[in-house]
């Protein structure tokens, strides 16, 4: 039986189980595309964001920041586009509290108060929004991101860390409201254990991906899973986080934080980016295309898949979700087949 025949046979028995871990604007792009590929999706979402509307709500009512969760809910929801638009609507009034807040953030905060925790709040809202898949906050408690810079100084808070514009040596997370060790709830760990593919990224390396992996029991689940662990490397470097990083630098940092070579496959863009469409004055979070270092990636013990993974329009650079999702599904089916052999 050929690989394609095996994959087709396996696909009739169940959908591939894909766990995507991250946050930020890149996560919904991949989730939307995976939904089109009929994957059984679990999104594990960062809870350490302290900027914008999420940070303001967190400061007022002490809730896990809802922004990334809101965007993931919309990406996996089956409700009408009009309902999604209402959920995503951001107030532009001059009211001192509502100005800049997204309605969805307020709804998530309200459900958090009603249920007493963010995990149950998100599960309840997932049902209301007819989510195809599962959405799990990485932790049931708000977390604070901490960083040590190369110069030895230490800073707490995601926004404060990136504002320092210093080279980051390492990051870790602490519970915002207690001295107990951060932990993921059992459904998060079970999803990683049972996955065919565990996907990291795309997203900010130090502020969207690593905060999840610095939750000790979540990191341990990733280390022990039999799933294919896939890293979707960023297309562009990010100001204050990954200045001048190559694709290998990204993987090396993740492996260093995990304490070993745990990335099985890396998806990297190999296409040239049309910088004439790029306006750094408007989008200063991006500095330059991430350089390829295939030799370095192989030395990190991971398979490299390279392609034209970019979708560039209006001066912005995004991943082409469909191309990325197809590679993820192929790798997930391969992992499913290996388990059956």
From TrEMBL:
Transmembrane segments annotated in the record for this chain: none
UniProt key word Cytoplasm: yes
GO MF terms held by the record: LPPG:FO 2-phospho-L-lactate transferase activity
Database matches in InterPro entries: CofD, CofD-like_dom_sf, Gluconeogen_factor
Entry keyword annotation includes Nucleotidyltransferase: no
A single cellular component GO annotation: cytoplasm
One example of a Gene Ontology biological process annotation: regulation of cell shape
Domain of life: Bacteria
Protein keywords: Cytoplasm
Cellular localization per UniProt: Cytoplasm
CDD domains, per database record: YvcK_like
Family (UniProt): Belongs to the gluconeogenesis factor family.
Function summary: Required for morphogenesis under gluconeogenic growth conditions.
Annotated PANTHER family: GLUCONEOGENESIS FACTOR-RELATED, UNCHARACTERIZED PROTEIN YVCK-RELATED
Name of this chain's protein: Putative gluconeogenesis factor
Organism (species): Lactobacillus kimbladii
């Amino acid at each position: 039986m050929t690989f394609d025949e095996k994959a087709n046979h396996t696909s009739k028995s169940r959908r591939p189980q894909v766990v995507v871990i991250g946050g930020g604007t890149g996560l919904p792009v991949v989730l939307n595309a995976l939904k089109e590929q009929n994957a059984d999706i679990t999104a594990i979402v960062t809870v350490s964001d302290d900027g914008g509307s999420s940070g303001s709500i967190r400061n007022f009512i002490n809730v896990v920041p809802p922004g990334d969760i809101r965007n993931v809910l919309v990406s996996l929801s089956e409700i009408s586009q009009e309902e999604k638009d209402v959920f995503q609507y951001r107030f532009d009034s001059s009211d001192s509290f509502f100005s800049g807040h997204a309605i969805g953030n307020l709804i998530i905060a309200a459900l958090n108060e009603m249920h007493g925790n963010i995990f149950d709040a998100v599960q309840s809202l997932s049902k209301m929004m007819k989510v195809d898949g599962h959405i799990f906050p990485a932790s049931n408690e708000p977390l604070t991101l901490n960083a040590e810079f190369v110069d030895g100084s230490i800073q707490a808070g995601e926004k404060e860390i990136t504002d320092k514009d210093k080279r980051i040596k390492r990051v870790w997370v602490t519970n915002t409201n207690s001295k107990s060790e951060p932990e993921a709830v059992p459904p998060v760990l079970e999803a990683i254990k049972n996955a065919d593919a565990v996907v990291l990224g795309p997203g900010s390396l130090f502020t969207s991906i690593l905060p999840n992996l610095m939750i000790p029991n979540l990191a341990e689940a990733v280390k022990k899973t039999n799933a294919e662990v896939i890293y979707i490397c960023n297309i562009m470097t990010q100001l204050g986080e990954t200045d001048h990083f190559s694709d290998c630098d990204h993987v090396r940092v993740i492996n260093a934080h995990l304490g070993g070579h745990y990335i099985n496959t890396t998806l990297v863009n190999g296409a040239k980016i049309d910088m004439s469409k790029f306006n750094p004055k408007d989008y200063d979070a991006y500095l330059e295309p991430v350089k390829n270092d295939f030799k370095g990636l192989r030395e990190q013990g991971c398979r490299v898949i390279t392609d034209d993974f970019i979708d560039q329009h209006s001066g912005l650079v995004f991943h082409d979700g469909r191309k990325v999702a197809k590679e993820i599904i192929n790798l997930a089916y391969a992992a499913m087949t290996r388990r059956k052999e």
